[in-house]
Design a protein that fits this description.
The complex is a heterodimer of chains A (414) and B (383). Chain A has 414 residues and is an alpha+beta fold. Chain A is 48% helix and 18% strand. Chain A folds into two domains: 175 residues, no CATH class; 200 residues, no CATH class. In chain A, strands 5, 6, 7, 8, 9, 10 and 11 form a seven-stranded mixed sheet that branches. Chain A has a three-stranded antiparallel sheet with strand order 1-12-4. Chain A has a three-stranded antiparallel sheet with strand order 3-2-15, with no helix packed on it. In chain A, a hairpin with a 2-residue loop joins strand 13 and strand 14. In chain A, helix 1 crosses helix 11, helix 9 runs parallel beside helix 12 and helix 11 packs antiparallel against helix 12. Chain B is built from twelve helices and ten strands. The two termini of chain B are 28 Å apart. Classes of the chains: A alpha+beta (414), B alpha+beta (383). The interface between A and B is large, with 40 and 39 residues.
Chain lengths: 414, 383
């Protein structure tokens, strides 16, 4: 019976290729847009290479100083000194790490300029992130203690700096910003959108150019705190807040007395949004994103409802005949439900193909360096479900009305 | 005629309600996208106010070096000037044009004040960027000894602080005196707003910041490598980074263009979707009204009359939807949402209305022509 319904649905689809096209186009484009947006958001905030621990990590990126009247404000990353005193001493976290905000430098090879992103980090950075070492190893405490000029580069940089011969580049020298460094490791590059861990080259934090000796609370560094599990977050946050509250105020910079130190250990999304909105956003962000997506979905959904409502009369004679032969309302409604599910799944399949191609092209395009967008299957499921609901709403409500029609009226229509 | 059309639509309000909602939603999406597009294009029309093509910026950071940094920097400037490839050179604060660094402060005079971008530059800035003076002159290094520090402002700052007065020679609240006025200065690229700008003599020369230099045409990366090597040997332990302003401009442009392109593509797909849907709905609806068309034709209505009726019906429906949409849209210019000039919103509203009417007309045209071709004899016979 189910097979019969699907056969009928298929014939109905073929009867009016134009309407079929409109319906499928609507469903598949809507799903595609939804999936592209959500996979992009997932790319931005989800836990992916090299930050697979993101969901159990807290970040301390910004430190704002404000005067008591809240008229003057100074914001920026934290200093190494601040990390050493108030973050490394935290007891609850599994481990903490410090790394500089990404800076850039130039390198010249055979009259060609290579723009290199540089980051200075400690040894824990390699524990907290999941960078995959293709060659060599990260620098260790001995390198740091000796002040070695060593560097970990990405595979992309290996291609730029060295001939693509297969021999190992470990131990070779690279010259960046007029200084020579010895390559001790090669990692697989991560996407540029993970701004707290992305870089082309990683240097030990205690090289002079990292400015780690700078005093004061603000500097160029960011701390990543890995917790044993996300349930430890409140404890870590309060421990950190407690540490910060011990910093003596006011702090005099220039002619301004700063009395408020505003810095928090936050999850990744909160950290990124805090710099923009300057308040904890949390779930509000997702609500706004959800509303925007709903708006995007809404338009094609209304369109679909509209079209189905207009077209349902086409089936009047069919309904009439089936009712005359004794089909109950329930059976007819069930048939229309199956039909709608069938169409939605075809649309979903098309959307899946378009999205895969779109994401593949996007990753290849280099719009975002080394991007690794993937189709988010849970998201695909949810979008499919939403589409199904709209499809059912648009198909079933009129179908029920039709199914309840008097046989004589339905037959008379044609 | 219109009254009659409205009556016709009112009689079928149930099925038209969904249509109105659909067109209303399209209008809102269009209004949003058009606001973004208008804002960007409106900015693009205004000239940049400076030349950047042959200009490089060298970002210098002294890191932990504290020994005679000012002297080293003076030597470096002399050295750069001496290269035959270099035409002009100037030192300025880190917020060079197209960079992502920004500095602003409130400038006040008597009771008026304006938030303005502040640039500390030396006397050669004007030459490197080929800035045309609107009135007055650029400050000179000799001005550093003057009692009132000289500043140059752009027209936007002049408008905000002086209105119609001539600002040349007037002093500001902190005893700085305006010696020159320039026209636009859109430091973050063509797609940004022309913001108030304020230039002040960098004195004493800062130990950090940027060196901007204009090169003779035909200079390539080989010179760049040589320059960086030379500077590296003079400034041991410093960070030296060269960027081309043309590249930095491209980055700034992408910042404005990428969202615009993404939203336009999404809106384009949505509208295509809506257009095809409308087309289908109209086709079905018109097919349902064959009898009515037959009667009208039999009573002497011409093909054009029929066609006009259906297109006009769609227009009336679209007008209803747009009126509802306007209730929402006019809030934006009146409440100055997102701090945009209200003109941008009005233009966006007009554009959105035009596109909606265009879309509706195109969608209604073909089905209504088919309807007009209906032969009264056949239809009336069928029923």
């Amino acid at each position: 019976m189910l097979l019969n319904y699907i056969k009928i649905a298929w014939k109905v689809l073929l009867r009016h290729p134009f309407y079929t096209f409109i319906t499928l186009f609507g469903i598949s484009i809507t799903l595609t847009v939804l999936m592209m947006i959500t996979s992009f958001l997932d790319h931005l905030v989800g836990s992916h290479y090299p930050e697979q621990n993101r969901d159990k990590s807290l970040y301390i990126m910004n430190l704002f100083l404000e005067d008591s009247a809240r008229t003057s404000q100074m914001g920026g990353p934290i200093s190494y000194d601040f990390y050493k005193k108030y973050i490394e001493t935290l007891k609850t976290p599994k481990r903490t790490s410090v790394s500089s905000m990404i800076t850039s430098a130039n390198s010249y090879i055979n009259g060609k300029r290579i723009k290199v992103s540089t980051k200075y980090c400690d040894t824990n950075f390699w524990e907290i992130t999941n960078y995959e070492f293709l060659e060599g190893k990260p620098f260790n405490q001995t390198n740091i203690a000796n002040g070695d000029h060593v560097v970990v580069i990405t595979d992309a940089m290996r291609e730029q700096f060295f001939d693509s011969s297969s021999e190992s580049v470990i131990g070779k020298m690279v010259e960046v910003d007029n200084e020579k460094y010895k390559v001790i490791g090669v990692v697989k590059a991560g996407p540029v959108t993970r701004i707290l861990t992305f870089s082309d080259m990683f240097f030990p934090y205690n090289l002079p150019k990292s400015n780690y000796q700078r005093t004061g609370l603000q500097g160029t560094f960011v701390a990543i705190i890995e917790a044993n599990s996300s349930s430890d977050f409140p404890e870590i946050k309060s421990e950190f807040d407690n540490n910060v509250s011990k910093i003596p105020v006011p702090i005099n910079i220039g002619n301004t007395k700063y009395t408020i130190i505003d810095t928090h250990a936050q999850t990744y999304t909160d950290t990124m949004l805090y710099g923009v909105f300057h308040q904890e956003i949390g779930n509000k962000f997702y609500i706004v994103v959800g509303l925007v997506l709903l708006m995007l979905m809404g338009l094609p959904a209304i369109n679909l409802v509209n079209l189905n409502v207009s077209r349902i009369l086409e089936r009047a004679s069919e309904i009439g005949v089936r009712k005359a032969f004794g089909a109950p309302t329930r059976t007819l409604a069930f048939q229309f439900i199956v039909e709608n599910i069938f169409i939605t799944f075809i649309g979903g399949a098309i959307a899946l193909i378009i999205t895969s191609v779109g994401i593949y092209l996007f990753n290849r395009s280099g719009l975002i360096l080394y991007s690794d967008l993937t189709i988010n299957l849970p998201v695909f499921g949810v979008s499919l479900l939403v589409c199904l609901v709209f499809g059912l709403l648009s198909g079933v409500a009129p179908a029920f009305r039709m199914a309840k029609m008097k046989v004589i009226d339905a037959l008379k229509r044609q | 005629m219109i009254q009659h059309l409205i009556k016709l639509i009112w009689n079928r309000k149930g099925s038209h309600l969904l249509l109105i909602i659909e067109i209303w939603a399209s209008f809102m999406v269009l209004f949003g996208v058009m606001s973004l597009v208008t804002f960007n294009l409106d900015n693009y029309r205004e000239s940049l106010g400076f030349e950047y093509e042959q200009v490089w910026a060298i970002d210098l950071s002294r890191n932990q070096d504290t020994v005679q940094t000012a002297e080293k920097l003076a030597q470096v400037l002399q050295r750069i000037k001496a290269y035959p490839e270099v035409e002009k050179v100037s030192q300025m604060s880190s917020n060079s044009p197209f960079s992502f660094s920004q500095m602003n402060s409130s400038i006040s005079r008597k009771k008026t004040s304006t938030l303005s971008d502040i640039y500390y530059t030396d006397e050669n800035f004007e030459d490197v960027f080929d800035i045309k003076m609107k009135s007055g002159r650029w400050y000179q290094s000799s001005d550093s000894v003057a009692k009132n520090k000289p500043v140059v402002i752009n027209q936007k700052t002049a408008d905000a602080l002086f209105g119609t007065e001539n600002p040349i020679g007037k002093t500001l609240d902190d005893n700085k005196v305006v010696v020159g006025v320039i026209d636009n200065f859109k430091a973050k690229g063509e797609f940004t707003k022309n913001e108030p700008a304020f230039f002040q003599l960098m004195w004493p020369r800062s130990e950090e910041g940027k060196i901007v230099l204009k090169l003779k045409s035909g200079t390539d990366a080989n010179f760049e490598a040589k320059l960086v090597k030379d500077l590296g040997s003079m400034l041991v332990g410093w960070t030296v980074e060269v960027s081309y302003l043309t590249d930095q401009r491209q980055n700034q442009h992408n910042l404005a263009l990428v969202p615009m392109i993404v939203f336009t593509i999404i809106a384009g797909f949505l509208l295509l979707n809506v257009a095809m849907g409308l087309f289908g709905i109209l086709k079905v609806n018109i097919a349902k009204r064959r009898e009515e068309i037959g009667v009208r034709r039999a009573m002497g209505a011409t093909e054009t009359d029929i066609q006009k009726q259906f297109v006009a019906e769609m227009w009336v429906i679209a007008t209803f939807a747009i009126l509802v949409g306007l209730l929402f849209a006019v809030q934006f210019p009146t409440l100055k949402v997102f701090d945009l000039a209200s003109g941008v919103y009005w233009v966006a509203i007009v554009l959105a209305i035009l596109i909606i009417y265009g879309l509706v007309t195109i969608c209604a045209f073909y089905p209504s022509r088919q309807a007009a071709k209906i032969q009264p004899a056949i239809v009336l016979h069928e029923s």
